[in-house]
Amino acid sequence: MTSGADTTTQSMIEQAQKTLRDNDLGGYTVPTHGLYPFQWNWDSAIVALGWLPFDETRAWEEVTSLLSAQWKSGMVPHVVFHRPSDTYFPGPDIWGVQNTPDSTSITQPPVLASVVKLLHQHGREQALSGEALHTVVQQLIRSHLWWYNSRDPENTGLVVSYHPWESGMDNSPAWDEPLRAVPKVQWSYTRRDTSHIDASERPHKEEYDRFLYLVDFFRKMNFDDTLIYQDCPYRVNDVSMISILHRGTRDLLALCHDLGIENAQTQYLAHRMTLTEEAIGELWHADTRMFHSKDTRSGKLCMARTSAGMLPLFAGLVSHTQLPLLINELDHWLKNRPFALSSTHPEDPNYEPQRYWRGPIWLHINWMIAEGLLDYGCTSQAERIKEASRDLLYVSGYNESFHAQTGARSGGADFSWTAAMALYWLL
Ligand code: 9WN
């Protein structure tokens, strides 16, 4: 006889699998229909983990379809426009990239290498192996070499991001200051996001005006990495990007080691990791006792307190002196809050519990922080974040994100990465 709890869990699993199947457009999974009708980079990486427990072949297809859009330079784009749709803005006409398949000209946090390592490690059928697996690993090596060479050409140890969309945390208050230096685009446009979702949950027009200025700028620079590095008005050491890249490189090198791939490229990646380990302290602030992004144009830290500041845990970049201070901050953040972890600290002046990356909770961020906590032996905090994440599923289902105070839906419904986190991590 199955208990009530088992029946509920079973039906949650079925619902999560159905969410992925419904969002499957054949080889790639859209985040949700309408609002996001294309393939997004870090969404697909997370979604591959969700496919893993019930369709391993399909999990690998998510990876290979994303990598099919890799640029000659090695960059894996942030959105791949495999087929047309008019429910999202800006589409391929605005980006002006002419590749096959079509894509945007920027990237997103490179969590893919860590995911590939997990698929290889936990896959029961070894659904991708031999030559095909080697091809994926070579593509990832090229991607990570591109990251370091084109986003940190001066060997500072800290790569830069050129657009809030690259961070995947579009309107985080961390970007308020660096975005102010970006002019507003001069042409008029019609947003599509606010026809799907209430405007109170989305970025403001002033932010979109600047997002679009940058899109134009990349096009005017002919997408040239060197020119963009020199002249981009927005150039930020994004602490989440840096942490995810660092963890990804570590996982990629471990995978290479298992597969017997050791050469000048892997040695070079290992060297780049040491540069990051030496430089990460620049992003630590003694008063807030956490990590922050840095605006490389002004040289100032972005002082908003955001969940990104916990991601160095995922990368193993927190020193033993910083660890107790950071954990103390986390404990305070979690204390007396029914849900966790808000994307912006509730005591930060820019906190808005319903507005996208200024408050709502995102489960893939929780997963990365919890993984990092486990690596550091902080099991009670990891368990607390995991339980709080599970609670959100039971309170309001497979949403894009969750209102930081009520746990209600924030953003789109029937969302792929939340269903994936349920299947891989929570249920
Ligand atoms: C722009 C798809 C993506 C996520 C990002 C999230 C949001 C897009 C948007 O949706 O960004 O890339 O139009 O708001 O911020 O993290 O990958 O789910």
Please explain how this structure is put together.
The chain has a three-stranded antiparallel β-sheet. The chain has a three-stranded antiparallel β-sheet with strand order 4-7-8. Strands 5-6 form a two-stranded antiparallel ribbon. It has helices spanning 4-23, 41-51, 56-67, 92-95, 112-122, 130-151, 164-167, 176-180, 193-196, 205-220, 225-231, 239-258, 264-279, 312-315, 322-334, 363-375, 379-396, 416-426; strands at 39-40, 79-81, 102-103, 236-237, 284-285, 290-291, 294-295, 300-301, 401-402, 409-410. It is built from 18 helices and ten strands. The two termini are 20 Å apart. Strand 7 (294-295) and strand 8 (300-301) form a beta hairpin. The longest helix is centred in the N-terminal third of the chain and has 22 residues, at 130-151. The protein is globular, with a radius of gyration of 20 Å. The mean pLDDT is 97. The chain has a single domain, classed as Glycosyltransferase (Alpha/alpha barrel). It has 427 residues and is mainly alpha-helical.
